Amino acid sequence: MALLTLETLHLNFGGVAALAGVTLEVNADDFFAIIGPNGAGKTSIFNCISGIYTPSRGRIVFNGQDITRVKPHRRAKLRIARTFQNIALFRGMTVLDNVKIGRHIRLRSGVLACGVYYGKAAREELAHRATIEREIIDLLELQDIRHKIVSTLPYGLQKRVELARALALDPVLLLLDEPTAGMNAEETEDMVRFIRYVKQTKRLTVVMIEHDMGVVMGISDRVAVLDFGLKIAEGAPAQVQSDPVVIKAYLGEDFEVA
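Below the sequence we write its predicted structure tokens.
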């Protein structure tokens, strides 16, 4: 059964069609990758799913509910989390404080109680902090840097902190926007290992945008290919990798099929 469905999604900016009738189905527990050249509409899909953009036409259905016009914070409460292509952390805060922000929407105490930080609100935050340290900080091997300021960390570790913050929301659906972009080979290997591990451990459904074809082909169950806002192919990684249309539009004529 599909956990996430995009039905004939259109997104227009003036006369420019960022998405032109894209339809996708992502099943529960899938690892679904979206690939395509720059400007193909990949991040626009993520922005529609997370509520940053409202599609011009079409529907987005999550877990049986039409969320096309649901506000972003309501989608977060439905347990949809994402990372960003460009790191979007609070650079002057510690690793732990950045991760705790991702958990904020799970708090039941009101604004006033949290501001006073006493009694039930204090106990609730301490309980959430314990959960974060046990289930996320330890899981992603961030124990030794949890009190460090984010801006002092290497790029690869900052990307891992952003993944940790998304996991703090306790998502059902995790959207990863180019999680290995800008990383060296060692950092990429580490990130792929952590993504695989958290997906298996937390039984997540993952949708990933990625340009590293080795990563895409190595960890994805299904792959969709976009070009100029259109879906031009979808299928198993090996099937997509050998599709002549995909090779011509994205991979290049000199691409060698493994």
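The chain is about 40% helix and 25% strand.
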